[in-house]
Amino acid sequence: MTVTAWAPGRVNLIGDHTDHTGGFALPAALHLGTTVVGEPGGDVVTLTSDALPGTAVVRLDVDDPSSVEPGWARYVAGVVAELRPTTGFTGHVTSTLPVGAGLSSSASLELAVAAALGADLDPRPLAALGQRAEHRASGVPCGILDQLASASGVDGHALLLDCSTLEVTPVPVPDSIELVVVDSGERRTLDGSAYAQRRDEALAARADSDDPVLQRRARHVATENARVLAAVDALRAGDAVELGRLFTESHRSLADDFEVSTPTLDALVARLLATPGVHGARLTGAGFGGCVVVVAEPGALAEGWIARPSHGVCRQSTDG
Ligand code: GLA
Q: Is the pTM of this model over 0.85?
């Protein structure tokens, strides 16, 4: 039997650094993602990849995913440790996502591997499994945003996530609104970034504090949650100008109050905002590098790639 599993990356349209405190986010699963093709059998999981170096060889009883080599095999090991499949797998990984660009290449790998290894594709438990796998693999205390988006994608729709209930509400993206992803080229891993510190600050900022830093973090989270709901209204109304305004406000808040932007990202956003037909732009995902997402008039931007909201993780098996 040959199994083919695919899971998308995601672009977060708005609502960054809100997932830890049970807030709102509005990602879309992307048409770009990770494919795993192979055959179940044996008692190890062995995966090769076009783009990633080395071979992942993971025992079904692996107990410390974070120490597995090569580095990308840690995500495979994290999934194995959480899923505990009883049968191994031999296969190959391909990806159409840039790695480390803030488009959730790791969540996409985790969910594609989990699907290939036979996981139940029910979005919420699968997303939670992927999140735990990521924690075990990387030690980065990521929220549920990336995995829930990859698990729950709907063609042509953004996804309103309520991170307190994990409820997902698909919101159609009208043809009149073009969402373009532009890669800054600045690469980062969250491992070693201020990501964990920001998460701790966002959690600490839930209590009233005199600390001006925590007050700014709290202001970002509160205003960002409100912007997500306003962005849903703007999408439903087909109001690209208002959506763009919210994007640009979100970028300022992430840069000034949450302090996760970089000079490269700020310069890219400023340049894009000066382009005719662009209504708004913001960093997407964790920050510290990666991509910018833009609301533009269709055809206005001659760079980046148009985000085509996609369906979520899927799997196909063929005999032979
Ligand atoms: C990364 C994390 C998510 C989320 C975003 C910021 O993508 O994996 O859980 O915290 O950053 O919104």
A: yes
Catalytic residue, candidates 16, 43, 61, 146: 146
| Residue of 10, 11, 13, 16 to mutate, ligand 1, most atoms within 8 A of C-beta | 16
Summarize pLDDT for 211-230 with one digit per residue, the tens.
999 999 999 999 999 999 99
Q: What are phi and psi of 165, to 5 degrees?
A: -110, -10
Measured from the Cα of 134, ligand 1's closest atom is: 8
- Cα(4)–Cα(314) distance, rounded to whole angstroms? 8
Residues at CB less than 6 angstroms from ligand 1:
12, 16-17, 19, 142-143, 145-146, 285-286
Ligand 1, residue 15: give the atom nearest the CA: 12
* Percent with pLDDT over 90 in the chain: 94
Strand partners, 305: 181
Q: What is the mean pLDDT of the chain?
A: 96
Residue nearest to atom 1 of ligand 1 (CA): 286
